[in-house]
């Protein structure tokens, strides 16, 4: 992909090839930190009452005889003796940075709010699946994921092998393949496979290829209440999973393109958080909207870009500042702090309403707390 394209051009080109530029940037000629060491990036902390635990799952037997890496994020009982988890492991982060034109050591992975292997909090919690964008990784919406977990959800994130930066427990690094096409239907197949493994875990079976799950995790999964969300291509995969799998009761797309065009009716709750791929500008999104026959909602934040509903809206400005480069064409005009609050509030309100039947008012219409968020008719 050529340097110098506009951000929207990058998004459109990526959709046409079902790939995307990692970090949403054009080549930066191996830009390196202007200081004495790698950029120290930070993530905002979640607002919920529960500490967060996380564990990874190595899953064999995925569609097309692939292996997958997934992560489970959950409300934890006690985190005092458990280390905080990194946003990404070192090797896939280096590969991600290089693929985007940065030096491999341009940044170190930020710490998340989650603690590796902490025991799960007693009580069954709703399960939310997450699918990442093209040529990306399962950590790209960690702000949303850890927010949900801190409010009592179990969230399962998946690296889509052949279209992800990831690492297996034996140290094998995987990066997106240029030879193996991965469309939204492939992502959807992965999610349904992982969901089956989550149901195995809830039944007391261990789906991991080599490790035991943290204490209490099997008993924390309420597989009668399942939702899903995804960003970009993962948003389209969310729609496809819901059309194919009645176990998923509610779906949320973060600026998904809905390509190939979806022409099947869906009668369960679905919410669109659009930015660049809007109903007004993308016929495929408008067509999908017309087939939503159940509860539906479309919100859009002023100044939002394709990256604005995931971690990149927060992390890219930090990286750009450390490298001494402008971020004008890399993220939206929305302030990172405001983007964080939107990412934390709206997905939580959606899943609270449709998986827990908690009737808050945030989704009823425009809120004075979020004046930049419009409700599109």
Explain this structure to me?
The chain has helices at residues 7-16, 90-99, 142-150, 184-202, 233-244, 283-290, 312-323, 336-355, and strands at residues 39-40, 52-62, 66-75, 84-86, 107-108, 111-116, 125-131, 154-159, 166-167, 173-174, 221-231, 248-254, 270-274, 296-301, 373-375. The chain is an alpha/beta fold. The protein has one domain: Alpha/Beta hydrolase fold, catalytic domain (Rossmann fold), CATH 3.40.50. It is globular and about 50 Å long. Keywords: Hydrolase, Lipid degradation, Lipid metabolism, Signal. Residues 1-31 form the signal peptide.
Task: Walk me through the topology.
Blueprint: H1 7-16, E1 39-40, E2 52-62, E3 66-75, E4 84-86, H2 90-99, E5 107-108, E6 111-116, E7 125-131, H3 142-150, E8 154-159, E9 166-167, E10 173-174, H4 184-202, E11 221-231, H5 233-244, E12 248-254, E13 270-274, H6 283-290, E14 296-301, H7 312-323, H8 336-355, E15 373-375
Parallel strand pairs: 1-5, 2-6, 7-8, 7-11, 11-12, 12-13, 13-14
Antiparallel strand pairs: 2-3, 3-8, 4-6, 9-10, 14-15
Pfam family, one: PAF-AH_p_II
Keywords: Hydrolase, Lipid degradation, Lipid metabolism, Signal
GO biological process, one term: lipid catabolic process
């Amino acid at each position: 992909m050529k340097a110098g394209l506009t951000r929207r051009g990058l998004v459109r080109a990526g959709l046409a090839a079902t790939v995307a530029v990692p970090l949403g940037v054009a080549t930066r000629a191996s830009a390196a930190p202007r200081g004495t060491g790698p950029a120290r990036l930070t993530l905002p902390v979640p607002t919920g009452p529960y500490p967060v635990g996380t564990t990874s799952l190595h899953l064999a037997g995925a569609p097309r005889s692939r292996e997958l890496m997934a992560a489970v994020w959950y409300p934890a009982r006690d985190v005092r003796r458990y280390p905080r988890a990194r946003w990404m492991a070192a090797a896939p982060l280096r590969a991600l940075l290089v693929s985007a034109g940065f030096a491999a050591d341009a940044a170190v992975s930020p710490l998340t709010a989650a603690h590796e292997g902490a025991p799960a909090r007693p009580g069954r919690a709703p399960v939310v699946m997450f699918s990442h964008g093209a040529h990306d990784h399962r950590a790209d919406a960690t702000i949303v994921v850890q927010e949900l977990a801190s409010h009592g959800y179990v969230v399962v994130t998946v690296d889509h092998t052949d279209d992800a930066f990831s690492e297996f427990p034996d140290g094998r690094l995987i990066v997106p393949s240029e030879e193996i096409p991965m469309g939204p239907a492939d992502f959807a197949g992965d999610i349904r496979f992982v969901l089956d493994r989550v149901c195995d875990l809830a039944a007391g079976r261990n789906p991991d290829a080599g490790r035991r799950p943290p204490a209490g995790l099997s008993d924390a999964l309420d597989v009668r209440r399942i939702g899903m969300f995804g960003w970009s291509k993962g948003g389209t995969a969310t729609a496809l999973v819901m059309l194919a799998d009645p176990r998923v009761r509610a779906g949320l797309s973060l600026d998904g393109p809905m390509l190939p065009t979806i022409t099947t009716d869906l009668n369960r709750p679905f919410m669109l958080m659009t930015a660049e791929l809007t109903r007004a500008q993308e016929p495929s999104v408008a067509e999908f909207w017309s087939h939503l026959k159940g509860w539906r909602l479309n919100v859009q934040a002023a100044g939002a870009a394709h990256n604005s509903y995931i971690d990149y809206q927060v992390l890219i400005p930090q990286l750009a500042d450390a490298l001494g480069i402008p971020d004008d064409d890399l993220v939206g005009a929305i302030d990172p702090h405001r983007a964080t609050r939107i990412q934390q509030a709206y997905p939580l309100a959606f899943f609270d309403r449709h998986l827990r039947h908690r009737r808050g008012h945030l989704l009823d219409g425009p809120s004075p707390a979020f004046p930049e968020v419009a409700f599109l008719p």
